[in-house]
Design brief:
Elements: E1 12-13, H1 14-37, H2 45-64, E2 70-71, H3 73-93, H4 107-113, H5 118-137, H6 146-149, H7 154-233, H8 238-262, E3 276-277, H9 278-290, E4 296-300, E5 309-310, H10 314-330, E6 334-341, E7 345-352, E8 371-373, E9 382-384, H11 386-398, E10 402-407, E11 414-421, H12 422-425
Parallel strand pairs: 4-6
Antiparallel strand pairs: 1-2, 3-5, 6-7, 7-11, 8-9, 10-11
Helix pairs in contact: 1-2, 2-3, 3-5, 4-5, 4-7, 5-7, 7-8, 9-10, 10-11
């Protein structure tokens, strides 16, 4: 695990931070120059302004050279350390712990605690606490004439750093707690928006499916008429008759699917007309593909210790069919399906011996309408990769599955890992 977090929730807006730094720098300039010229306080004026000038340079760097709109956890840490050290040096030059402006040394770490990671905040708190302790024992005297009149007892003197450190820890804890709750709300909102987006895509796909169903009705009817004619024409030729019968059965199956799309999307399918185990579901899906595919389906369920039946779910079956169909489409000769289960989890792995997912689309897998191109054939014919994965992933995740798409570590092709907690799977 990296020390600095890269999550989008462990960062803050650069423009906001720059504006706050300009306010702080302006306040330092006004304070230093006002007390020196108008109140006649005597301290190292040149070095003090030089330290402030370094802060100006770092802010100009942020404004004009640092191009990102968000400060990452690492970048924010660096600039906040600069802020703490800059203020610490100014305080060192002007009385240390008894300087009335010592309270401002708490601001950088408190400001960061609601936006940055716990480890980064801890480092900033420790650095601030160390500076407070150092300023307690090492600093120049208060500027005259204040040093001539301001004297406190040791009890009061040492109570200042103790109170500052307590305030530092408490304020950071409060801000961190608030920031954590805020990030959790952001993450929940992002998940909700993602689910709603997927629901919208599915609704859109439903409309497109209905339109496609009407469009495909006529060509399927034509194919049906031709197959009947072919049956009469090749009567007595067993090999040809067998192929024509298979073609007729598939046309009928297509017609039934189109009817469900146009009339009632949730109409029961004879395929899932009863409650059966996951193993039997997969067997039925494999058998349906074997009718039309010449590829080998290798189903391993040796480690399946749970034969419990599940409530029929159109979404689960269609989701599995999509992934197995994709494996059949892109494999060279073999599709490997492995079912594992124990008392807690049920896991299905679908692998093929194809070329796998191209590296350039790996971050986009699961998005609808994603296409990739057959590089071996150097063609511009798009392979419809994304839609099947999107539908399958969405349907299964709606039913509490965790779906992972990746390239297989043991074979040449792609791998789909589908995993349920048994308490979720058997209570659908």
């Amino acid at each position: 695990m990296k020390f600095f977090e890269t999550s989008k929730y462990h960062s803050f807006k650069k423009s906001t931070y720059i504006a706050l730094r300009w306010i702080g720098i302006l306040g330092q300039l006004i304070s230093v120059n006002f007390v020196y010229f108008f109140l006649n306080f005597k301290f190292d004026f040149i070095i003090s302004n030089l330290i402030i000038f370094l802060g100006i340079l770092s802010n100009l760097y942020l404004t004009f050279i640092y191009k990102k709109t968000q400060l990452s956890d690492r970048s924010a840490f660096i600039f906040l350390v600069i802020d703490i050290l800059q203020l610490g040096i100014l305080l060192y030059l002007t009385g240390g712990i008894v300087n009335p402006f010592i309270i401002f040394i708490l601001i950088p770490s408190v400001f960061s605690s609601s936006n940055l990671s716990f480890r980064t905040n801890t480092l900033l708190v420790v650095l601030t606490a160390i500076l407070i302790i150092l300023l307690t024992f090492y600093s120049t005297d208060l500027p005259s004439p204040l040093s001539d009149h301001f004297h406190v007892s040791l009890y009061y003197y040492y109570s200042i750093p103790i109170s500052l450190i307590i305030a530092l820890v408490f304020l950071n804890y409060f801000a961190m707690t608030f920031g954590t709750q805020s990030r959790l709300r952001k993450e929940a909102l992002a998940k909700m928006e993602e689910v709603m987006a997927k629901e919208h895509e599915l609704l859109s796909l439903g409309g497109q499916a209905a339109a496609a169903a009407h469009s495909l009705g006529t060509p399927l009817s034509t194919i049906k008429i031709i197959t009947h004619d072919l049956t009469k024409q090749f009567k007595g030729q067993k090999e040809v008759e067998k192929d024509i019968e298979l073609l007729c059965s598939q046309v009928e199956r297509c017609n039934e699917i189109l009817k469900r799309l146009t009339l009632n999307p949730i109409e029961e399918d004879v395929f899932i007309d009863k409650d059966i185990s996951i193993r039997d579901y997969i067997n039925e899906i494999i058998l349906s593909f074997k009718e039309i595919s010449k590829k080998d389906f290798i189903f391993n369920f040796d480690q399946d210790s749970n034969a419990k039946k599940i409530t029929k779910s159109i979404e689960i079956i269609y989701g599995l069919r999509n992934f197995i169909g994709n494996a059949n489409k892109f494999s060279k000769s073999n599709i490997y399906i492995t079912l594992k289960s124990d008392s807690e989890f049920t896991e299905i792995t679908i692998e093929d011996d194809g070329t796998g997912y191209p590296n350039d689309i790996m971050p986009k897998i699961g998005e609808p309408y994603l296409k990739t191109y057959d590089l071996d054939q150097k063609s511009k014919k798009g392979l419809g990769l994304g839609l099947g994965i999107f539908i399958g992933k969405t349907l299964l995740e709606k039913n509490f599955a965790l779906v992972t798409c990746r390239n297989s570590k043991t074979r040449s092709g792609a791998e789909i890992l589908i995993k349920w907690k048994n308490k979720d799977l058997f209570n659908i």
